[in-house]
Amino acid sequence: MTQQVLIIGLGQFGMSLARTLSEKGAEVLAVDRRKNLVDEAAAFVTEAVMIDATDESELARLQPARRDCSVCAIGDDSKEASIICTALLRQMGAPWVIGRANNAMHRRILQLVGAHLVVTPEEEFGRRFANRLLNRQVISDMPLGDDLHLTEMSIHSSMIGKSLVELALPRRFGVMVVAVRRGAPSRVLQPDPHAPLEADDRLIIVSSESAIPKLTRGV
């Protein structure tokens, strides 16, 4: 079944989220009080509407209780508006409300008014980008919770031609290879522990965050 997502606030984060979800087949209702941003989003979302999401009657017309997910992506310009909007979404019975916070205090308030999940895009991007700066082999990194990370990384030259059995990565570094990305266009393959790795291979691994720098330094 197609996911129905309500996105309120079409700044850089909200607009990017709306575009990506639309490209992946979700039905996106995009909302902002600025006409130029609504017009921009209308080119790729299911529907784009110009309203003030802190107005209870206007927000109610969007029927948030019928959406699979509601994202309050209102940015730095109005923390008060994001708090009011998040509280109204919960009051109206939205089944899953995601709020965007700008700092720790904002996060706590959004949690107190009922957000099911609070994201801090700038903080999370900064953390991931720092990992990439310090570990040049890291291509992408996603936290899974409880200090587990899903990381995609290019292989070190010393790994080329060796098998995963020979490298013994779980024993030496505490990482588990769950897939190998290979070729152009790339294919994600189940790892063969006895097959030699190729120069352009990328490993997709699950590990603790601290294991990644040990792996990139120690192979």
Automatic annotation (TrEMBL):
Gene3D superfamilies: NAD(P)-binding Rossmann-like Domain (3.40.50.720), Regulator of K+ conductance, C-terminal domain (3.30.70.1450). One of its GO terms (molecular function) is monoatomic cation transmembrane transporter activity. InterPro entries: NAD(P)-bd_dom_sf, RCK_C, RCK_C_sf, RCK_N, Trk_Ktr_HKT_K-transport. It comes from the Bacteria. Residues 2-120 form the RCK N-terminal domain. PROSITE patterns: RCK_C, RCK_N. Residues 136-219 form the RCK C-terminal domain. GO terms for biological process: potassium ion transport. Pfam families: TrkA_C, TrkA_N. This is TrkA-N domain protein. It comes from Desulfobulbus propionicus (strain ATCC 33891 / DSM 2032 / VKM B-1956 / 1pr3).
